[in-house]
Amino acid sequence: MLEQREHKGWAIRFDPPPIPYRDFDWIAVHPDYDAWEEDGEYASNGKIVHAATHDALIAEIDEWEDDNAST
Length: 71
What we know:
By secondary structure, this protein is of the alpha+beta class. The chain has one domain (3-67). Helices cover 20% and strands 37% of the residues. The chain has one helix and six strands, in the order E-E-E-E-E-E-H. It has one helix spanning 54-67, and strands at residues 3-7, 10-14, 26-29, 35-38, 41-44, 48-51.
């Protein structure tokens, strides 16, 4: 079952893929996230983060926000 949460407007969910690598268990998507196909490859505006734990994901969101803050 997918569990939906939110932090600073980012949609957060726990959705572990069927692989042993845990760094993608948690995903957060920015409200302005966009993705498209470009030359047959996936591309995005980068407004998405992944982490192994909820706490690590919150830290990733906060770091992304700090790194991309408008000055």
